[in-house]
Structure formats: structure tokens, C-alpha cells
Design a protein that fits this description.
5 helices, alpha+beta, 32% helix, two-stranded antiparallel ribbon, 20% strand, globular, Glutaredoxin, 246 residues, seven-stranded mixed sheet
Amino acid sequence: MKKTNYSYVGISLIVLVFGIIFIPKIVDRITSDDITREGSRSRNVSKKITDNMKLAFLTINGQPKKVPDFTFINQDGNAISNKDYKGKVYLVEFFFTTCPTICPKMSSNLVQIQDYFKGMEGFGVASITINPHIDTPEVLKRYAMNYGITNPNWHLLTGSQDVIYELANQGFNLYTAEEEEVEGGFEHSGNFALVDKNGFLRSRLINGNPIIYYNGIISEKQQFDDDGMREEISLLKEDITKLLNE
């Protein structure tokens, strides 16, 4: 019996010592935001930011440029409009599922960004196909599964080709066209547009000038392409974080 009592005393002392040493450290970590909640439960998103500069609004004729109204059908067969993204920070890209060149790189980079912001309900993506004759909701659904797209706010969108091309070329100024001579039959921008919670196009300033759009082709791991252009995925992740915290 005495031996058993000594064991209980020993265990009690260990628990007490653990509490004295570690509980204050845990409390301190929570106070200093080392432990954060995911998604909408957290007021501020705790991610890497290297500067405190606010992002610029892209302007046309002195007015901040807003995403034009759009409504398309997503991979689940549901109608999705720009209004579904209100209150969210999101990226816009134009792509097509049979693209043999830049689209796989862009999709892989977007998945990497998706995973970086996993669980954050305020982040989304709009991937709009420029080949809607092939890219039906069923095709887009398979594409999403193949790439590991899991964010419920990532919609792969299809619709009228004329409407999509007008949105790309005039609404976003992201060049899109059918080009028979080009591999894959289409030519389009490899950039991502960044949109804030109120639907305005935003961008970081470098040397006082907005970069406007973010290169979506070069990965963080690759760092530089063959022409010496530096990746912008790391900048984009920082800037998404800034907008999530606004």
C-alpha cells in the first residue's frame, strides 16, 4: 500500500511540474498568436508578410477597377456569379483542360496556393475555361479531381465562349484568343488576377508601380524561368494574406 501511495505522489508531482513549466508557455504562445485558428474563426490570418505596404487599386481613368459582373456554370453544374465571391479574396485565371503548355503549371501553382490557405473560408479561385465547347461541367469536375482541387470556393467555370472572351480581353485585359498555329489551339495569358473582398482588382507596388497581375507559370520551387524571370507565387501568397487581413 505504501509503495502504491508513493507512486501516486510521484505522478502528482510530475503533473504539477509539467503544469508549472509548460502551461505558461502555452498561454504565452496563444497570446503572441503563435497558435491560430483556421478559417473565419480567426480575425487575422497568421501567414508570412515581409512588409506593411498596402496593395494598390488598379485604376482606369482614375477610378478603381472592379471585376465585371459574370455568371457561369461550375464543375458541379451550379450557376456561379461574381456575387458568390463577395466577402472573399480570390484569384481569377483563364485556362483550358486540354492545354499542353502553361495550364498544368498554372493549375499546380494554384493548388499549392490552395493548400497554403487550407481551411480559410475567405479565400477562393475562379478558373474560367476558354474552350467551353470541350470543357463541360463533367470535364471540369474530372480536372478538379485530377489536380486535387478541394477548396469549396474554387469554381471551374464554363459558359458562352463569346462572353468569356469579352470578360478576359476587355474585363480583365488578359489576352485570350483561338490560334490554330499555337500548340493546343488557343493562346492566353499565364497571369493571375487578384481580387479583394469588395470585388476590386488589387496589386502590389514595386518601385512605385503596380505589377498589375501575378505570373502564374513559374513555381516557388523553380524560382526563375529560362529567361531569368523570378517567380511571383510567394509575393501572391503574401498579398492574399494582406487582403484577408483587411
